[in-house]
Amino acid sequence: MANGLPYYKAYPRDFIEGTIGMPFEIKCAYRVVIDLIYMQGGKLPDDARYISGLLGCSIRKWSSLRDALILADKIQVSGEFLS
């Protein structure tokens, strides 16, 4: 365990194949959001300011990326959390 964070196994082929056709920005945001979800124990607070800050983009940009990931069925909104 590095820095107190749990290790999780990732399958690069699954990620690459599961994101074929996604634009670069959405694909990259998805990879970071996956990491954030794992860092938060499976429930990432749906906090646009927090997530956009970590992604290094505006809240408006994160909102469009979030919508695209939801539409692509890559993330789900469960109350106040993303999973």
Beta strand count: 3
Structural class: mainly alpha
What percentage of residues falls in helices of 4 or more residues?
40-55%
Strand content: 5-15%
Question: What's the number of helices?
Answer: 4
The average pLDDT score comes to: 93
What do these coordinates show?
With 83 residues, this protein is mainly alpha-helical. It contains 4 helices and 3 strands. It has helices at residues 12-18, 24-39, 48-55, 59-71; strands at 44-45, 77-78, 81-82. A 3-stranded antiparallel β-sheet has the order 1-3-2.
Give the key terms.
83 residues; mainly alpha; three-stranded antiparallel sheet; 3 strands; 53% helix; 7% strand; globular
Describe the SSE topology.
Elements: H1 12-18, H2 24-39, E1 44-45, H3 48-55, H4 59-71, E2 77-78, E3 81-82
Antiparallel strand pairs: 1-3, 2-3
